Amino acid sequence: MHIRRDVVDAIVEHARRDRPLECCGLLIGIGDEVVECRAARNLKESPVAYLVDPGDHFEAIRRARARGLAVVGAYHSHPRSMAEPSATDIREANDADFIHVIVSLADAEPQVAAFRIDGSRAIRLPLALVEG
Ligand SMILES: [Zn+2]
To answer: Which of 30, 55, 83, 127 could disulfide-link 113, Cβ–Cβ 3.0 to 4.6 Å?
Structure first.
């Protein structure tokens, strides 16, 4: 998948701001290209789980449609664990086309990875950074 570098920077910034809680948000783009992210409230307010506020999700859909784009995925942070889907992340995923970006703050350097989750299988997507 392709993602703008400034979008990755914004996701990492959001993760750091909300640490020690998990942060979350929506990814806006087209196909497998992400051009924008929108922060959302994590209704679970938890260090190990997240739930995107449905109102924020709806707002992101409206915003995307107004620009001829779509919500192609979501991001969330793992403040203390690796950038891989947790068992809960896999269980709660219900759209095989949805892109899941996870940012880990477990190491000194943030790690960012992207996945599609098909049933019980997480498929890692190569991450191509787009300048702009
Ligand atoms: Zn997770």
So the answer is: 83
Burial code (b: 16+ CB inside 10 Å, e: under 16) for 102-117 equals bbbbeeeebebbbbbb
Among the listed residues 13, 22, 33, 84, the single catalytic one is 22
Q: What is the pTM of this model?
A: 0.96
Measured CA to CA, the distance from residue 70 to residue 61 in angstroms comes to 6
Distance from Cα 6 to the centre of ligand 1, integer Å: 22
pLDDT band for position 12 (cuts 50, 70, 90): very high
Phi-psi region of 52 (alpha: psi -120 to 50; beta: other; left: phi over 0): beta
User: Does residue 36 carry a catalytic annotation?
Assistant: no
For 18, the enclosing helix (H) or strand (E) is helix 5-18
C-alpha count within 13 angstroms, C-beta hemisphere, residue 132: 10
Kindly report, residue by residue over 63-120, the tens digit of the pLDDT: 999 999 999 999 999 999 999 999 999 999 999 999 999 999 999 999 999 999 999 9
Distance from the alpha carbon of residue 7 to the mean position of ligand 1, in angstroms: 19
